[in-house]
Amino acid sequence: MAFFLETLIGGLMAGMLYSLVALGFVLIYKASGVFNFAQGAMVLFAALAMARFSEWIPKWTGVNNLFVANLIAFVIAAVVMFFVAWLIERLVLRHLVNQEGATLLMATLGIAYFLEGLGQTLFGSDIYKIDIGMPKDPVFVLDSVFQGGILVNKEDVIAAGIAAGLVIVLSIFFQKTTTGRALRAVADDHQAAQSIGIPLNRIWVIVWCVAGVVALVSGMIWGSKLGVQFSLTTIALRALPVVILGGLTSVPGAILGGLIIGVGEKMAEVFLGPVMVKAFDLAGGGIENWFAYVLALVFLLILPEGLFGEKHIDRV
To answer: What is the domain partition of the chain in residue ranges?
Structure first.
């Protein structure tokens, strides 16, 4: 039972981090109807900015306190992501208002390659580390309930807490603020929102800025765990099944989808893997890499809109 709970908790922690990346997809799609293939590149670019500025700040300012240096680096990286979002809207999206979805999709692909190249030009292509002070050592909990206790990674718990806090803040922003309601109006109908005086261009800048901050937090956490390297762009691909399960327009769906995928991957690797190896005489391993996509494919066949996605009914 203790081993099962360890696997379950590990899956939930990983699922929260997947949800954080998926949130960037959902935010932009809700406001603009664009499936943003540049989200992975945004995570990479933000992580590179955070890693390099946290390295440069002590040299520039003489600040030796890790927390202060990281805080300054985070603020500067956030400003950089705001500027990138403004440029994307100003130079690309503003000229593609009310264009076909395929056109916008190709634009995000171009943005992705541009950000990858720009990140390498500005910050370098080595593997960098982000030290935000999160403890790396695991701990044992519930010693009095289970013999030997349950092994929990403190870094995963803190990262999941940060992700959950950001999700709560964004949910309140969307539901309770005037700007959040304007974002939801734009998501429902661009032309109707424009007709009542909602400035579409400004809304797109805001939502890309918010997605940039989400990418920064995602890049900071994943960079702390894995190191900042160009393979971080593949994190966005790991979040695609999350978006499919939860629905492209649902923030709660991104959270629930992430938890399902995280737990499903861990459970499949630990419990299903040995069974398949024994039954089919396989080499073993790798189930964690493809399980989420198979599950997403099943959802596409049965529930194409996802758990919380908007259902489309065409009347003829």
So the answer is: 2-302
